């Protein structure tokens, strides 16, 4: 994925997120090669055109919540996640430890180890 633009890498990663799993914006930016560019990853998703078949709803914030309420899509996104089996608590938060997905082909595989 090194030859792709940041936007292309973000969209490729989003397309790989399996149903019933989520990624955070920060995680998406990290895996797309720009650690700390969570907001920019969000801008890429915000610019998606209607009719694109990417599972944009599987990308959430680092607190395990949807960030699309201000855009008018929060309830829609929560509904799509619930329909795929992602459990959200009363505050709209999912358990990232359970639902967060990491691609297997990441260097080292799986979630990064925190020191």
Question: Care to describe what's here?
Answer:
This protein has 115 residues and is mostly helical. The protein has a single domain, classed as Winged helix-like DNA-binding domain superfamily/Winged helix DNA-binding domain (Arc Repressor Mutant, subunit A, Orthogonal Bundle), CATH 1.10.10.10. It has five helices and two strands. Helix 2 crosses helix 3. The longest helix has 11 residues. The chain is globular. GO terms for molecular function: methyltransferase activity. InterPro entries: ATL_DNA_repair, MethylDNA_cys_MeTrfase_DNA-bd, MethylDNA_cys_MeTrfase_DNAb, WH-like_DNA-bd_sf.
Short description:
It is built from five helices and two strands. It has helices at residues 6-16, 25-31, 38-46, 74-83, 96-99, and strands at 23-24, 59-60. The protein has a two-stranded parallel sheet with strand order 1-2.
Cα-atom radius of gyration = 13 Å
Write down the secondary-structure element order: HEHHEHH
Largest sheet: 2 strands, parallel
CATH topology: Arc Repressor Mutant, subunit A
Number of helices: 5
Portion in strands: under 5%
Count of folded domains: 1
Helix content: 25-40%
Biggest β-sheet: strands ordered side by side in the sheet:
1-2
CA-based shape: globular
pLDDT < 50 runs, ≥5 residues: none
Number of strands: 2
Instruction: State the end-to-end CA separation.
Output: 27 Å
CATH class: Mainly Alpha
- Name the average pLDDT: 87
Overall CATH architecture:
Orthogonal Bundle
Instruction: Give the name of the CATH superfamily.
Output: Winged helix-like DNA-binding domain superfamily/Winged helix DNA-binding domain
Query: Structural class per helix/strand content?
Result: mainly alpha
GO molecular function: methyltransferase activity
Organism: Deinococcus reticulitermitis
Protein name: Methylated-DNA-protein-cysteine methyltransferase related protein
Keywords: DNA damage, Methyltransferase, Transferase
């Amino acid at each position: 994925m090194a030859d792709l633009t940041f936007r292309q890498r973000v969209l490729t990663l989003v397309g790989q997120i399996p149903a019933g799993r989520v990624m955070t914006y920060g995680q998406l930016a990290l895996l797309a090669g720009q650690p700390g560019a969570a907001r920019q990853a969000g801008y890429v998703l915000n610019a998606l055109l209607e009719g694109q078949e990417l599972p944009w709803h599987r990308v959430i914030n680092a607190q395990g919540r949807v960030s699309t309420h201000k855009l008018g899509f929060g309830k829609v996104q929560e509904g799509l996640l619930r329909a795929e089996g992602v459990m959200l608590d009363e505050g709209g938060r999912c358990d990232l430890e359970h639902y967060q997905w990491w691609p297997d082909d990441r260097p080292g595989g799986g979630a990064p180890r925190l020191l």
